Write the structure tokens for this entry.
Amino acid sequence: MTPFHYIGEFIRQLLIAIPMVMVRILFVAFFLTLIIWVWRLPRERWVPAQNGETGLSTHLKFWALLALGIQLAIYLIF
Amino acid sequence: METPTASLAVIDLVIIAVYLIGTVALGLAIGWKFKSGRDFFLAGRSLPWWAVGMSLVASDIGGTDIIGVGGAAYRHGISAANFEWIGCVPAMIVAAFVFIPVFYRMGIYTIPEFMEKRYNSKVRMALAVCWLAFMACNLGIMLFASAKMLNVLLGWSSTYSILLTAFLVGIYTFSGGLKAVVYTDTIQCAVMICGCLLVLILGLKDLGGWESMMTKINNLGERTTYHDDLIIPADRDSPFVWPGILFGLALILSPAYWIGNQAIVQRSLGAKNLFQAQAAFVWGSLLKTVIPIIIVIPGLIALAKFPALVDGDHAFPTLVAQVLPAGFRGVFLAAFIAALMSSIDSYLNSAATVITNDFYLRYFNRSATDRQLLNMGRGSTVVLMIWAVFFAFWILRVGEGTPIFAIFQTLLAFFQGPALAVILCGFFWKRANGFGALAGFLTGVAMAVTLWVIQQWHEAWGIQPLFKVPEAFLYFSVWAFLTSLFVIVVASLLTKPDDLEKTQFLNPESTVTKPS
């Protein structure tokens, strides 16, 4: 056995001990954190200055939230 | 059950021929007017978001992925979809809003070029060598894998398949560079989605719908206990258990791939403007939501229909041969060939870009004209394609039956984690310096190699395997990443800080636009 084995086994047992309900919450929290981060992005991050177009098609934040929202729904269902 | 070779009707062959001729003609037409290296490597910065987004998806999904992911779904259920969902969408969104704007504003051609601007030429060289070695070998492996798949699916000779694929991809990539790659990828993405969608619709119809399929799968007993779960407990004998998916895939390998992979980032740098580059990644993330539906569910359909297959990788080919009628089979096979070509062309063009920009322009001819860069790019494309053909034949001769494909997948895991650590420190920690970055990168790679060696030869040494999962690439990346991060921090703090100008690019108002 190498030192890596002892460290690895310790971490493995720790991860196995986490209930699956908590794991599911962890996955959902991962997507929720991203959704909140995108929601709070300042305007200059998603509408570059050189772009004069307007409308929903250029609303990158909306489409990013849609993509992440679909992911959240998928991980909530499955 | 043997893998049936798909028997093709004349209409199938016509569809495949039209697709192949159309793709090559488009690529040649695009490259006709090229006059500069900027046209060849960054498509003259003229690409629209929808084309770049589709190209991102097509480059990511190779023909072997269609077969492999379908096979993984057959063996392990819908957890195989994690690679396309949590393994792509979050990283693409973060890349769109944080990393791509900086790369685009800097006017760089390659990721190693970013490393020199942020750190120094040694870090650039280390990354460039790793990427070039990986991409050059991967080209040969993809040609070899393509030949094997075409042989299984169509009964074509491996030798002719390698030569034909290399010739077709080589000719349009040589002529049209990134622009040809992106526009042919767009067609390939559409054909790929349509072809796989056909398999999905006709397969589900054949089984009597979703409910009927799931009932059949659930009746297969214990082997399918977790087939309808995306999140698999840590103690299961599956490569997709949740710690690997969350910590290895979602937090390390996926960001490393979508932020630091030269073949991926290069096409967004060819977008018309920054908005288009960002939109391409967001559009790609929406497309990625659909991909598992069309490549994972067919694996489940195959399981419900043919539960006794010896090899899960036979799931997709069996389904195509048994379910699709003549004509439709041609569409799927065109889709399969499209997926093969779209990955090979991307790596071919990116490897040529690294040779030209990170070696030729940087070390041999700093005052090269645009025409010289174009010629060098095209020359590199030819040399790389010839090398890839020889490498594919070499694997065919001596490597068949050995885990050489798995070895090269592991190679990617060796340096992607450390490369991500270097990029993240470069973006978010101004104190990170060139010495720390180089030390961290090399130590991370050494850590990954050490873990791989222990895992690979544990039986010969009479010790337990380090990782209990069948394929441990995800875990190599996690540990390599953490090691790199630690060494970068310690080594940077122990040595002199770099000049402040090295982090000027992090300012959104920065006017750095000229490539080095």
User: Anything to note?
Assistant: Chain B touches chain A at residues 78, 85-86, 89-90, 92-94, 96-97, 101, 228-231, 233-235, 242-243, 246, 250, 273-275, 278-279, 282-283, 285-286, 288-289, 451, 454, 463-464, 466-468, 508 (CB under 8 Å).
